[in-house]
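Progress note, project year one: complex with 3-phosphoglyceric acid.
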Amino acid sequence: PSLSSTSAHNSHQARVGLMILITEDVWGAQFEGLRALDEVCYEPDLWNQREAMKEKLRNATVLVVRNRTKVDAELIAASPNLKLICRAGVGLDNIDLSAADAREIAVSAALGVNAISVAEHTLGLALALARNIITHDLQTESGKWIRTPGMELRGKTWGMLGFGATAQCTATLLQGFGVNKIAYDPYAKFSDSQLQSFGVELVSLDSVIEKSDIISVHLPHTPATKNLLNAAEFSRMKKGVLIVSVGRGEVIDETDLIAALKSGHLGGAALDVRASEPPTIGELELFENVILTPHIAGITHESQSAILELLAADIMSSYTGAELRGAVGKIRSIS
Ligand code: 3PG
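Model obtained:
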């Protein structure tokens, strides 16, 4: 199958020849059709082979990445024909947006598309921590019948760090749990009625740190958020607090987290995202009250279908000159 069989034959892209380079694994039935296109060069390990990737990028007009390919100024400079970078996901910390803007390369991302998936995973992790579900499962499966009490969420304070799409969905799902919801987000702009509909009060970072029984971390990785949760912050948290991390791993200082878990000050932590991915096995794996998942909060059949739909639409638009649905940089369409 080929995209050039579409009616967009006369477009600029058709004339220069479309080459779609995918440098990371995009798996599953959803992506089969895309991978099979004649225009597509699917090299799932290329993100890790810088020079080979630069070589391939000399001809690429569209680059499709997830979170591993470092799309920095140097890579962009090595891509003379690039018109569109598609982020098959949400986080943009691996893409230099200003370098793309400067070269008039459009960037499209699936903002908000996996928010429900992330929120459901967040809730799952919090419930698993609060009721020691993983430990109870492992013990029961090994023949041990150990009945220890967990903690109800009802009546507790759930603090969110970051109040973007995934936190908003988490707040919505929490309606019915009877928790008191607070959130810190220096960029959030909501009317009172919007906040009322989420049932969330926007508060300071200090309030989330000091008042929460459960803290879910939804923040992206930026210079301002790196190691935001460190020894000083952990020590100001309530004893027994549960931490669920689903934004970016760099927000939590893992060495300080381990110390705070060892001291017994933290009640538990569930990390879907890590400072380094995949992480090396270390001390975190040894705690009964730590749950680790491999950055899968946003990955469901439903979210991948929705991401692919947006990505395919924007690749087609790069061909036809139509407005890009997922445009996040200054270029909104490709003429
Ligand atoms: C995202 O940013 O969309 C999620 O963290 C998932 O990232 P990934 O698609 O690179 O796995």
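The longest strand covers residues 266-271.
The mean pLDDT is 94.
No further modelling is planned for this target in the current period.
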